[in-house]
């Protein structure tokens, strides 16, 4: 028995649709500006330049159906995203073999303290204070690829209080699922339990307490997240 100085945290897990098993989460990689229209609305060139990633922490995930408005921010944005769940890792994974490493897909939100992120951008500092905070990654259950197939096209959308705010198609992703896995595996050793948040279409905006966010991706259904 390991003699820990203090009790280690409980392993973060994600639910799997139709299973009593759960998915143990290791790392969360998030790609930035992976839809051309979102890149434009954020003031960037949408041309296909090398992708870039930042990370959230496993304990930023939340499956409660609510999002707690964070302190130290007055401009919190929603970003609706496809989440890719990896169940087989490796290095230098080829594009041709990359989808063999995907267990399934889920709905996710990359909640962002946009004001704090903007401050960090101006100062040339990392974004984590705007991205990797408590409950900043609401997520739905993982749907196995064996059930839904590999999602490469289909609508992705987000409504706030019933009003459509974000609407796009998975086929608009600049870097596709296999390409993201290939690129990441050249810089990191991917492993079972890793998640990839695949970017957001245009239409990001702020929320306030009491708002109801409804996300939808074709093949995965929808989830509802209440801002509290």
From TrEMBL:
List the InterPro entries hit by this protein, alphabetically. Answer: Fumarylacetoacetase-like_C, Fumarylacetoacetase_C_sf
Domain of life where this protein originates: Bacteria
GO MF: hydrolase activity
Q: Which Pfam family, just one, is annotated for this protein?
A: FAA_hydrolase
**Key words, A-Z:** Hydrolase, Metal-binding
Q: Where is the Fumarylacetoacetase-like C-terminal domain?
A: 28-228
Q: What name does UniProt use for this protein?
A: Fumarylacetoacetate hydrolase family protein
Please tell me the species this chain comes from. Marinomonas colpomeniae
């Amino acid at each position: 028995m390991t003699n820990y100085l203090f009790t280690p945290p409980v392993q973060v897990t994600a639910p799997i649709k139709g299973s009593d098993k759960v998915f143990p989460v290791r790392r969360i990689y998030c790609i930035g500006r992976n839809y051309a229209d979102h890149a434009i609305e954020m003031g960037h060139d949408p041309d296909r330049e090398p992708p870039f990633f930042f990370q959230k922490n496993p304990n930023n995930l939340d499956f409660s159906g609510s999002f707690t408005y964070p302190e130290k921010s007055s401009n919190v944005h929603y970003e609706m995203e496809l989440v890719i769940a990896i169940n087989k890792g490796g290095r230098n994974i080829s594009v041709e073999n990359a989808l063999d490493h995907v267990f399934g897909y889920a709905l996710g939100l990359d909640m962002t303290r946009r004001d704090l992120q903007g401050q960090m951008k101006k100062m040339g500092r990392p974004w984590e204070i705007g991205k990797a905070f408590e409950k900043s990654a609401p997520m739905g259950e993982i749907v196995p690829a064996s059930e839904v197939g590999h999602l490469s096209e289909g609508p992705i959308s987000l409504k706030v209080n019933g009003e459509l705010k974000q609407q796009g198609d998975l086929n608009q992703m600049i870097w596709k699922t296999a390409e993201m896995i290939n690129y990441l595996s050249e810089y990191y050793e991917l492993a079972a339990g890793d998640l990839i948040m695949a970017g957001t279409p245009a239409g990001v905006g702020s929320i306030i307490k009491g708002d109801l966010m409804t996300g939808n991706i074709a093949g995965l259904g929808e989830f509802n997240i209440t801002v509290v």
